[in-house]
Amino acid sequence: MPRLLLHCSRERATLKPWFDVQKKHPMLECMLTSKNFLPTVSQGTAPKMNEQTLHQFQDISALLNSSLDHGEIRQRAIEAATIIMDAEAGSLLLLDEVTGELYFDVAHGEKSAAVRQIRLGFGQGIAGHVARTGEPLIVNDAQGDSRFFRQADQASGFVTRNMVCVPVRAHGRFLGVLQAINRKHDRLFEDSDLQNFVALGHQVGIAIENANLYEEIHQLFEGFISASVQAIESRDPTTSGHSQRVASLTCRLAEIVNLVETGPYARILFNTDQIKEIRYAAVLHDFGKVGVREHILSKAEKLYPAQQEAVKARFDFIKRTLEADTLRRKLEIYETNRHENTQALFAQLDQQLGRQMHDVDDMFSFVLKCNQPTSRSHRATPQPLPQLERLREIADQEYRSFDGMRPYLTRPEVQALSTAEGSLTQEERRQIQQHVAHTFEFLSKIPWTKSLKNVPSIAWSHHEKLDGSGYPRGLKKDLIPIQARMMTICDIYDAMTAADRPYKSAISPSEALRYLAGQATEGKIDSALFDIFQKERVYEATLIRLSKIA
Ligand SMILES: [Fe+2]
Ligand SMILES: [Fe+2]
Questions:
Q1: What CATH superfamily classification does 18-216 receive?
Q2: pTM, whole model, 2 decimals?
Q3: Is the pLDDT score of 518 beyond 90?
Q4: Ligand nearest to the CA of 487
Q5: Alpha-carbon distance 40 to 52, whole Å?
Q6: 526: which of 82, 177, 359, 505 lies 20 to 30 Å off by Cα?
Q7: For residue 119, how far is its CA from the centre of ligand 2 (angstroms)?
């Protein structure tokens, strides 16, 4: 008889009767006192479980409870059914809670698709009967039983001679029916076999329920993550999809690092939980942006739209004032020089006004030019000095307002227009950089499981640079987790190539890779990880842009 393989070792129990076992094993105790077990076997007549069966149960129990994966549990349940009952085949039918039907969840072989199509109404077939009554059932002449559902044999090509069916329940909730089919060696199923199968049905029910609970918690958390990302991106829609893309790139890079056999990361191997940890940290890395004021997040040019309107209105007012001054002067000339050649004087004034208007238009055009954000690719050439001088010259000009003389440009406007990179002033940049600290504060409040405990610290380090020039803590190489070093590369790449940032146009992948190569040469990002990112074309993971998280 085949043994199930176990990944755990344990000492063999000494041979004990079945009812001694229940005193020591809570799960078995639960099985033996369940309402389905008691009617079928009385304690006084119950046979003792032999050593081999006891060991099988121990193996099966350990195996079923060692996984929270639905597919694995179901597959193992069927294998266990055939072993415990010494049967040719087993099957597990699960309850579809929406339709109330039973369906075959696990089926193998070339006819598996046809078997999976089969659905039994509640009460239909022998399994349906067990579902309806809640009682285990042995049928030793399946073909002669009017309840037998022949289509299952027709679909599978299997010939059912006899079968034993037990309900699968957990916490009183019906989950499905477990079947063992065709006792080997032409034997029949006996009542004395039933207790083992009922016990197995309960174990399977508990294992499925555990997996259900785990799945529900997992879904709940995934839903929370999605909602959080949506919250970030609804405040800053221009970066829509960024978090998810960074997560895809970073996980891809981690998977490739796992395959690397040479270089400094040859011995690094991220397991499934660690990859999940990286994914959560990456998806939530910019969550702290919820703590940054929205107008700063979405600032597209050096002046805010309201500031631009104010400057435009001011320059219009200056031109109108020049016009009014000219007209007033003409009126004075007309009144004081009535008999002289006023036309020539008027022409002079018009020419002068034309020049002044042209100068003001020039200045306004220059302000508009300065208002455009400086792209990262032009970082090497910061705002040239003559440009700053010209800006100051304009700011020093004054016009006559109703309440006195005023500068053409205010101090905050000059400060914003003098920005050397991007569209943000130093103070605004400081506020944006605060998002990392906000992310850490937020993530630290989540009671992460042991396997995910590093999510906050990984996300906290995604703007650190190996040479200490990053933020918020200015960490250097060894203090920055490798997960964060990978994320930094992916974050920069996506931010540069994203077509939807308000303060810059998209940069081509090759240009972004060139920029990252420069950062690696300067010792700011991890050059070994960047080599993998580039050579293994990790960046292609998001060439087909992922859709925004719903
Ligand atoms: Fe960030
Ligand atoms: Fe980011």
A1: GAF domain (3.30.450.40)
A2: 0.70
A3: yes
A4: 2
A5: 22
A6: 505
A7: 48
